[in-house]
Design brief:
Length: about 280
Amino acid sequence: MEVVTADGVLRTVNEHRDADLFWALRGVSTYQFFYKSSAPRSTTDRSQGNGGSFAVLVSVTVKAYPALPHTFVRYSYNTTGDSDAFWSLIAYWTSLLPQFSEAGLMGYHYPEPNDPSEKNASISGKLHGSYFGPELSKSQVEALLAPVNEHIRNAKWGAPIFASNISTSGTNYSALMATGFADAKVGVPLRLASRLFDGKALAKPFDELKAALKKANGQSRGLQIFNVAGKGAREPMGGIPGGSNALLPAWRSAYAHVSTYHPASLTRTRLSSLR
């Protein structure tokens, strides 16, 4: 990178020259990364800080890589609304996040105890989401999910689980992400709270994990559970050309980012039961 630092000096930084600054400049902040609104920013807006806080970027040289093949999975599981079967399903799927992550899958799942669009109470409890498998074939992903679906089919949770899984493969993962996550206006009047969960938290006894997730959901308007911290975060020296980068240390051991929300008028929300 060519950058200008606060002392007015134009510097070329890389892993061998000003390595500490190079490390810091490669840090991230989701606040600035996802801010795509075309509306003027309020004078009360404050940056949370990111790599751009350390210097002004003049130019950057990056290595280009071949397009990655991928498999994309969209899934949905339905059962009786807000039932023991529903929360057992949520706890089971959430407990699998370390296994999914280590296998190369990443994505999101959303528990809906009572889907308001579903009139049939026997299927109004909904777990849905999508997973991405860069460099994983369709057969590899299906083989990974097969025992999971078998376990769900045979589980004695007190109500049947209805499953729908659709997987597709492609040759360009970057193109998939660009198509599915196009620029859009953002900003909603919600107050967010979240926690990062490592393997120890997700390995808690099944009933304890189930009770904690149910309690957290009951204190909020819903949970969103993201499996987005991959091997590049846990093993940066082996996973990032040029070595490590600036990152909140907790991300190095995280498998799940669990968030919840309230309308902004409320003052607080908690996800402390899985600490």
